[in-house]
TrEMBL record:
Keywords: Hydrolase, Metal-binding, Metalloprotease, Protease, Zinc. Residues 509-528 are annotated as: Disordered. GO terms for molecular function: metal ion binding; metalloendopeptidase activity. InterPro entries: MetalloPept_cat_dom_sf (IPR024079), Peptidase_M13 (IPR000718), Peptidase_M13_C (IPR018497), Peptidase_M13_dom_2 (IPR042089), Peptidase_M13_N (IPR008753). PROSITE patterns: NEPRILYSIN. One of its GO terms (biological process) is proteolysis. CDD domains: M13. This is Kell blood group glycoprotein. It comes from Homo sapiens (Human).
């Protein structure tokens, strides 16, 4: 990469050569992101996407200037530590770190919010590589993208999806300006960013510097402190990422056998039937909309465990000849990163008639795909404590069942958006909207916890509706099957076990992704739906007017 002036060893290489190496060999994208994704007009067609960069600092467009400055001060301290750990002269480290912060700040100022780009119709712009070269000439787009997406064969007429053209134009001007006046500082900015990206694969000093930065940034942004995360957990995650083709088949064979799959499908069928019944009685839907909604549920595809593609025998026997594991942990990680990128590109080049899964089989995140009209429940979700064929039905319906119902309600998100259902009773729908927002706003928030009710509204509605649908399905099951199993060590009725099971899987510790989460904080995901369900207050004998037994409730679903 040519080194950097911080250590005194500096070879002024071609800027685009360094950028090309960073992108293709290290998976580091200092000025923009480039990745493969669905074509906006044809979801099953893959196209290269160029988007804004992901900054390592938690910046927001509407951030107070005081907080903004404090965040950059903490980040500057962190960069100084990195430069010193890498053997840099302290005075040079300070100078180059400050310039790197300045570059990051200027790039951040170029960003335009997602909502603004969407409103202006500029979120998905189709351009060729040649056209992008004219707009942002500082980057050798063809050579950088060709190296990154080998073995794809690219040409100047290759179409790309660009998500923020104005940002790329301004970024290019900044790079050209730096190349003319401060080329060595631009090099240091790229190398410092690379070290930040690679820090999880470096020694404990880099780990500790990163931990202290994260702690300080969470304090500044008033987020609760993160619990300590053991290093072995990171290693397990990375192993799963790098060797997924082999591990997927082994995991599903071990953890999601035919009996588990059959029991999970029975649970899903009960939840789906309860949803269809509920759709027939929604006061804000007219008959035509109800029929349309029921048809959408009936046509839905469901995939469980793992995708058929992931379970192909030849993938399980993959030999990973391109991965070199040696005594250097960093070099081993880099070898795995390069191998993974090549496999991802290769998989996108192959025909893939079925839905392309967005999660690994051991993940616990279910999701609904709008483009393919399919709902996905990975094998990791259909494990304890969410689900087990031998569990009492109350546990399975309360945990996995409510999650299944939540995902099914994603089918109808469009109806809840302004103007999304012209044939609906929009006055009743708006009243239900306002009622739910007021309901969630009434709950006290723990210290250093915040949420945006506009951002979380759709997920809140799915949480409340999902619990109600799961309870309806379970109640129907109780009518048909007598002698319900309970948990001997808990003095709880089946209905109380149902609600306890729901709360158990929703209640969790905060995670690093929470600031970008469209879900409410964990305690609200417990209290919001439980307090919206009259049966909960009845079975737990909550006093009228108590936090979880309010005097009035909302019904959207």
């Amino acid at each position: 990469l040519g080194g950097w002036r911080i250590s005194g060893k500096w070879t002024s290489l071609n800027f685009n050569r360094t950028l090309r190496l960073l992108m293709s060999q290290y998976g580091h994208f200092p000025f923009f992101r480039a990745y493969l994704g669905p074509h906006p007009a044809s979801p099953h067609t893959t196209v290269i996407q160029i988007d804004q960069p992901e900054f390592d600092v938690p910046l927001k467009q509407d951030q107070e200037q005081k907080i903004y400055a404090q965040i950059f001060r903490e980040y500057l301290t962190y960069l100084n530590q990195l430069g010193t750990l890498l053997g840099g002269d302290p005075s040079k480290v300070q100078e180059h770190s400050s310039l790197s912060i300045s570059i990051t700040s200027r790039l951040f100022q170029f960003l335009r919010p997602l909502e603004q780009r969407r409103a202006q119709g500029k979120l998905f712009q189709m351009v060729t590589i040649d056209q992008l070269k004219e707009m942002a000439p500082a980057i050798d787009w063809l050579s950088c993208l060709q190296a990154t997406f080998t073995p794809m064969s690219l040409s100047p007429s290759q179409s790309l999806v660009v998500h923020d053209v104005e940002y790329l134009k301004n970024m290019s001007q900044l790079v050209e300006e730096m190349l003319l006046k401060q080329r060595d500082f631009l090099q240091s900015h790229m190398i410092l960013g690379l070290v930040v990206t690679l820090s999880p694969a470096l020694d404990s000093q880099f780990q500790e510097a990163r931990r202290k930065l994260s702690q300080k940034l969470r304090e500044l942004t008033e987020q609760p402190p993160m619990p300590a995360r053991p290093r072995w957990m990171k290693c397990v995650e990375e192993t799963g990422t790098f060797f997924e083709p082999t591990l997927a088949a082994l995991f599903v064979r071990e953890a999601f056998g035919p009996s588990t799959r059959s029991a999970a499908m029975k649970l899903f069928t009960a939840i789906r039937d309860a949803l269809i019944t509920r759709l027939r009685n929604l006061p804000w839907m007219n008959e035509e909309t109800q029929n349309m909604a029921q048809d959408k549920v009936a046509q839905l595809q469901v995939e469980m465990g793992a995708s058929e593609w992931a379970l192909k025998p030849e993938l399980a026997r993959q030999e990973y000849n391109d991965i070199q594991l040696g005594s250097s942990f960093l070099q081993s990680v880099l070898s795995c990163v390069r191998s993974l990128r090549a496999r991802i590109v290769q998989s996108f080049l192959q025909p893939h008639p079925q839905h392309r899964w967005k999660v690994s089989p051991w993940d616990v995140n279910a999701y609904y795909s709008v483009s393919d009209h399919v709902v996905v429940f990975p094998a990791g979700l259909l494990q304890p404590p969410f689900f087990h064929p031998g569990y009492p039905r109350a546990v399975n319906f309360g945990a996995a069942g409510s999650i299944m119902a939540h995902e099914l309600l994603h089918i109808f998100y469009q109806l809840l958006l302004p103007g999304g259902c012209l044939a609906c009773d929009n006055h009743a729908l708006q009243e239900a909207h306002l009622c739910l927002k007021r309901h969630y706003a009434a709950f006290p928030l723990p210290s250093r916890t915040s949420f945006n009710d506009s951002l979380t509204f759709l997920e809140n509605a799915a949480d409340v509706g999902g619990l109600a649908i799961a309870l309806q399905a379970y109640s129907k099951r109780l009518l048909r099957h007598h002698g319900e199993t309970v948990l001997p060590s808990l003095d709880l009725s089946p209905q109380q076990i149902f609600f306890r099971s729901y709360a158990q899987v929703m209640c969790r510790k905060p995670s690093p992704q929470d600031s970008h989460d469209t879900h409410s904080p964990p305690h609200l995901r417990v209290h919001g739906p439980l307090s919206s369900t009259p049966a909960f207050a009845r079975y737990f004998r909550c006093a009228r007017g108590a936090l979880l037994n309010p005097s009035s409730r909302c019904q959207l679903w």
